[in-house]
């Protein structure tokens, strides 16, 4: 029998008005093959109905959906009535039913309570006869915590009759008497429960939460698929998982769960809250647009390999993802292979992160609050600098105080003696302490929600104040949202309004590394407590160089401003129309508006202006102002059909269409001449930047596409899944704007085979194979077009000229990624052991890069699809319940994940070949990251080294032909390592006993290489007047016969990139430890509290590595501690 729910009906005028609106929507979506309208006139019901070859059951559904009548029948009585061709207009419903039942042995009764009973026998109009005998049932429905549940659906088993609980969770209804009455109670988020009625006494039903609901489906952001028959490689993260793994941000939490979501360890930006991380999923598959820029600082490479972020069906930025309130998130799904990402067409090649926010729960109004106190303590353990005495020893050994000029020699000795006296009397300034602090921040999240099965609402507010490890570094974010949901019969309307406001402050103390260079025998203040501006201004003849050192605290103490802000408003509207139980249509529209602003002010007293000439004196004091706007909209329509037939067959069909537009613009001006140091206001400037002018940028793009997805399952054992999307984008050439993307996958639920049914060892065995394509378009809006720029005001005979910026390419198309994935999901001993394994082969064709043009063309290069990159890897995850005793609330889980990826460049353009030749002839302390066929995109190129010659302290280099030399030659650069581990992953454990939960998560990396930049910049390429790593004193070559790793202490020649500094990296780090307690005391109920939880977190607790290097050069890393309180009323 079918489920039937009776809901409160709208007044008839409102009903008519609402129906007209709905009819317009239906016509607009063009998805209905049948039309039915109804109008109610006093006691007579007339309908307009037109169907072809329809079943009687489908006619009943149409009549129920558009009249106030409820039908009561048995499936077996009407199952064979079909082939109905009806065409009525303003006809009495009785005439329609007579026509449907003509020639059958069925009749119907029209009850006074708007119920039509279909049964065998002769038709009797009960409006004129005595009503049949009835029975009554009443009671209340609660959850396990004793909270009443309004809006619970109650139906009588094997009938079509159903009801819902009221606002107090109570129910009472009458129905025709039956021999056996079984009530079925169902509610979203709770397990369905049956109850057999024995008498007419009130009953109490307790529903339990369905904690496995998220485990049974895969949310792709477009379609929701059954996990049992899904062929894609995905990781689903629930709200409980997020709470367990950390209290920092969503990006770090995902990394702690799935290692394929890889965050590059950037030793430059450290824990700066205002910097975005570099993220990849299953390796890098795109060349960086600014390839040449990578050589300027090879320690950090931002790329176009970032995954796509989708929230509630619409794209969001990484910045928005970082600022999201994790307490508003219901689940996160990481889509990794082509079978999972093909439906995103041009945007899915780098992986997709799908975020689903929490929807309101039905019931009385509930209030949820979570607050946390967050502490960030700077982690400076990687710095091992010379103290005052050690620094003087190093300076003496390096010959800083030696000179052939006798007069200056005495002067140098006096300088040395004065510094040594200062050191002996206790001067040993730890400069690293001045720009850092123990940051104390706080975070709050408040949520109101309630409603019933018809109306639901929620209001969320959150505020996050991050106090960084450097003084003056803050990030403050406010989020708010209002969600409304309304159900009318088979239509559901949803609207989610989100507002986000952020303000970021960068530290006035500048670059952290500036403080690491200052000698510890200097002090920032003089004897009278005044801040010293210049710490040293001295010419060293031994180095033939003047050392001029500003006190880094001087600029930090001046009035300044370095901040940015944004405000984003996003509104998502959705309509779902459930035409049939197996068919529904959904339409969504998302509109996003964002404004940005950035302000940077430097006082006229800033040291940047000290060298200004007298003519430029009035230019001192600058203000940089930037502002921008973005407006995006996106809409999609999907049709979902799911049907089980002939017991063993299950079919799912999804069709969709989407279109989107993105528009943005940004303007920047730099003004000069703010003489009043306390006036950090743009209006106080007297002029624009000298020889400069306002700068601007803008972008505009559109995309559209259609998608089809089909999934077929046979007997829950064998399944096949296929997707196809054709998408077009204005970002690419006019001759190549549309491209198809597709995927196909097959799977086998081995555990549903007959020979596995009684197997107590292996409970789940699912094998999957998929292959498909996806694209990437994370590039400039106008890269396919020929663009020009004016000469900045220059004219000739009244005409203003322009010059060519970029050559267009009408054939420019998408990067296409082909991916093969083989996966397995295994569960042993009733879920005590779970294993997930995937192998993938990912090849990106039509790689976007530059093509070199001949010099006669007047332009260097243009964009084209020339290149190929391959990524091959393995992912493995294992979770084991060592203890699991639900009765005693005792469990202990141990788990681990492992990832391996091999990256290889298959083909590159001639422009990159030219760049490689150029880079192979350049010197420098940094290694070269060149792009060569057959090598990884992360290969480190340097000259091979045999080490330091013990006889003279010089480095011995190995040329390409194998010969040895003391002369470094850039042409001898060869691959010396890969800046990517062979394997990496996570280790985790969770122990729970009677409300106490302990979690710990560790990360590891093994087998990769890293270029130790500290050894170059702080040990060898260091001048003796700057502070340095202690190895400069203790580990450098000093005398013949010394077996040293570093060259001679008095060798000041530049150290270029050699394999001597390419080191194996093996790292273990403790990423998160948390300890929480869930109160279950009776006093909570007495004060109206549903639950109360207190949790303490420690993040980035420790790090052990085979490489000793300075980390956090521009901004230090930090350890994080927090205490959170969660309560629900």
UniProtKB/TrEMBL annotation:
What coarse category fits the chief subcellular location reported for this protein? membrane
Keyword annotations for this protein, in alphabetical order, are:
Cell outer membrane, Membrane, TonB box, Transmembrane, Transmembrane beta strand, Transport
Against Pfam families, the record matches this protein to:
CarbopepD_reg_2, Plug, TonB_dep_Rec_b-barrel
Q: Indicate how the chain sits in the lipid bilayer.
A: Multi-pass membrane protein
Query: Where in the cell does this protein reside?
Result: Cell outer membrane
Where the record annotates domain TonB-dependent receptor plug, the positions are: 227-352
What region holds the TonB-dependent receptor-like beta-barrel domain?
A: 495-906
Listed GO CC annotations: cell outer membrane
What family does this belong to?
Answer: Belongs to the TonB-dependent receptor family.
- UniProt-recorded name of the protein: SusC/RagA family TonB-linked outer membrane protein
Q: In which organism is this protein found?
A: Butyricimonas virosa
């Amino acid at each position: 029998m079918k489920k039937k729910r009776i809901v409160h009906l709208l007044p008839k005028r409102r009903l008519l008005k609402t129906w007209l609106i709905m009819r317009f929507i239906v016509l607009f979506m063009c998805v209905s093959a049948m039309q039915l309208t109804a109008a109610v006139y006093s006691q007579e019901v007339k309908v307009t109905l037109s169907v072809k070859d329809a079943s009687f059951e489908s006619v009943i559904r149409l009549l129920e959906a558009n009249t106030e009548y409820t039908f009561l029948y048995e499936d077996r009585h009407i199952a064979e009535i079909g082939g109905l061709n009806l065409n009525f207009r303003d006809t009495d419903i009785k005439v329609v039913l007579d026509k449907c039942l003509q020639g059958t042995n069925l009749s119907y009764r029209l009850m006074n309570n708007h119920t039509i009973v279909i049964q065998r026998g002769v038709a009797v109009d009960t409006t004129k006869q005595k009503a049949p005998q009835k029975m009554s049932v009443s009671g209340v429905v609660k959850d396990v915590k004793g909270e009443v549940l309004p809006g619970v659906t109650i139906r009588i088993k094997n009938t079509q009759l159903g009801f819902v609980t009221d606002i107090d969770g109570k129910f009472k209804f009458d129905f025709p008497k039956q021999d056996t009455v079984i009530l079925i109670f169902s509610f979203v988020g709770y397990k369905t429960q049956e109850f057999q009625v024995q008498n007419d006494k009130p009953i109490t039903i307790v529903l339990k939460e369905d904690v496995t609901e998220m485990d049974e489906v895969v949310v792709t952001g477009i379609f929701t698929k059954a996990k049992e028959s899904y062929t894609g490689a995905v990781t689903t993260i629930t709200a409980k998982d997020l709470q367990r793994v950390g209290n920092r941000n969503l990006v770090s939490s995902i990394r702690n769960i799935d290692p394929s979501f890889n965050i590059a360890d950037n030793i430059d930006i450290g824990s700066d809250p205002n910097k975005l991380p570099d993220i990849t999923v299953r390796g890098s598959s795109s060349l960086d647009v600014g390839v040449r820029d990578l050589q300027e600082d090879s320690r950090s490479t931002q790329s176009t390999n970032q995954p796509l972020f989708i929230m509630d069906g619409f794209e969001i930025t990484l910045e928005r993802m970082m600022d999201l309130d994790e307490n508003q998130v219901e689940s996160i799904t990481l889509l990794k292979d082509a079978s999972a990402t093909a439906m995103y067409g041009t945007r899915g090649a780098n992986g997709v992160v799908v975020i689903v926010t929490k929807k309101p729960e039905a019931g009385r109004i509930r209030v949820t609050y979570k607050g946390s106190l967050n502490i960030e303590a700077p982690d400076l353990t990687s710095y091992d600098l010379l103290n005052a005495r050690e620094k003087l020893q190093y300076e003496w050994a390096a010959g800083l105080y030696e000179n052939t000029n006798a007069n200056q020699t005495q002067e140098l000795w006096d300088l040395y003696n004065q510094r040594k006296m200062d050191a002996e009397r206790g001067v040993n300034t730890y400069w690293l302490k001045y720009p850092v602090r123990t940051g104390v921040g706080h975070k709050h999240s408040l949520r109101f929600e309630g409603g019933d099965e018809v109306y639901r609402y929620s209001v969320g507010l959150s505020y996050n104040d991050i106090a960084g490890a450097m003084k003056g570094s803050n990030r403050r974010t406010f989020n708010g949202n209002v969600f409304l949901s309304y159900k009318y019969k088979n239509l559901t309307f949803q609207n989610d309004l989100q507002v986000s406001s952020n303000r970021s402050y960068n530290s006035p103390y500048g670059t952290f590394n500036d403080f690491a260079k200052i000698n510890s025998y200097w002090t920032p203040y003089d004897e009278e407590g005044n801040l010293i501006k210049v710490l040293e201004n001295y010419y060293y003849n031994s180095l033939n160089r003047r050392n001029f050192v500003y006190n880094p605290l001087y600029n930090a103490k001046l009035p300044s401003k370095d901040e940015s802000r944004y405000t984003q408003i996003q509104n998502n509207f959705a309509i779902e129309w459930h035409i049939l139980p197996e068919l529904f249509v959904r339409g969504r529209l998302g509109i996003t508006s964002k404004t940005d602003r950035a302000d940077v002010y430097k006082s006229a007293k800033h040291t940047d202006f000290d060298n200004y000439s007298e003519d430029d004196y009035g230019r001192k004091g600058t203000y940089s102002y930037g502002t921008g706007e973005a407006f995006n909209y996106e809409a999609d329509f999907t049709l979902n059909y799911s049907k089980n037939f002939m017991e063993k067959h299950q079919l799912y069909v999804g069709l969709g269409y989407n279109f989107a537009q993105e528009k943005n613009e940004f303007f920047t001006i730099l003004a000069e001449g703010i003489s009043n140091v306390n006036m950090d206001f743009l209006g106080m400037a007297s002029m624009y930047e000298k020889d400069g002018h306002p700068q601007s940028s803008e972008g505009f793009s559109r995309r559209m596409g259609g998608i089809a997805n089909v999934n077929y399952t046979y007997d829950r054992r064998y399944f096949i899944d296929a997707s196809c999307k054709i998408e077009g984008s204005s970002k690419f050439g006019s001759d190549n704007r549309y491209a198809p993307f597709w995927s196909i996958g097959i799977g086998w639920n081995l555990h549903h085979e007959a020979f596995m049914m009684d197997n107590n060892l292996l409970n789940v065995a699912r094998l999957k194979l998929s292959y498909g394509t996806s694209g990437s378009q994370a590039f400039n809006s106008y890269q396919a077009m020929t663009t020009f720029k004016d000469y900045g005001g220059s004219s000739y005979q009244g005409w203003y000229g322009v010059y060519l910026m970029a050559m267009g390419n009408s054939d420019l198309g998408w990067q296409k990624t082909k991916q093969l994935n083989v996966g397995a999901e295994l569960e042993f001993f009733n879920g005590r052991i779970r294993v997930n394994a995937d192998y993938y082969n990912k090849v990106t064709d039509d790689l976007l890069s530059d093509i070199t043009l001949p010099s006669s063309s007047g332009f260097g290069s243009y964009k084209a699809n020339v290149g190929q990159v391959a990524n091959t890897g393995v992912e493995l995850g294992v979770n084991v319940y060592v203890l699991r005793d639900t009765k005693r609330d005792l469990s202990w889980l141990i788990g681990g994940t492992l990832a391996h990826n091999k990256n290889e460049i298959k083909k590159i353009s001639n422009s990159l070949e030219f760049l490689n030749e150029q880079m192979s002839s350049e010197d420098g302390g940094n290694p070269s990251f060149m792009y060569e066929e057959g090598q990884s995109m992360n290969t480190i190129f340097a000259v091979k080294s045999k080490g330091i010659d013990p006889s003279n302290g010089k480095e011995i280099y190995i040329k390409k032909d194998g010969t040895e030399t003391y002369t470094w030659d850039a042409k001898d650069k060869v691959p010396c390592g890969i800046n990517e581990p062979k394997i990496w992953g996570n280790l985790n454990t969770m122990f729970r006993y009677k409300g106490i939960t302990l979690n710990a998560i560790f990360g590891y990396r093994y087998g990769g290489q890293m270029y130790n930049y500290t050894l170059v910049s702080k040990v060898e390429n260091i001048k003796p007047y700057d502070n340095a790593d202690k190895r400069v004193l203790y580990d450098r070559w000093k005398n013949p016969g010394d077996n040293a790793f570093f060259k001679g202490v008095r060798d000041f020649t530049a150290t270029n990139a050699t394999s001597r500094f390419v080191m194996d990296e093996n790292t273990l780090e403790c990423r998160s430890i948390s300890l929480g307690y869930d109160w279950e005391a009776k006093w909570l109920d007495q004060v109206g509290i549903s639950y109360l939880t207190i949790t303490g977190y420690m993040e980035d607790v420790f790090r052990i590595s085979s490489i000793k290097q300075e980390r956090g050069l521009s901004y230090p890393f930090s350890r994080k501690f927090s205490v959170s309180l969660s309560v629900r009323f």
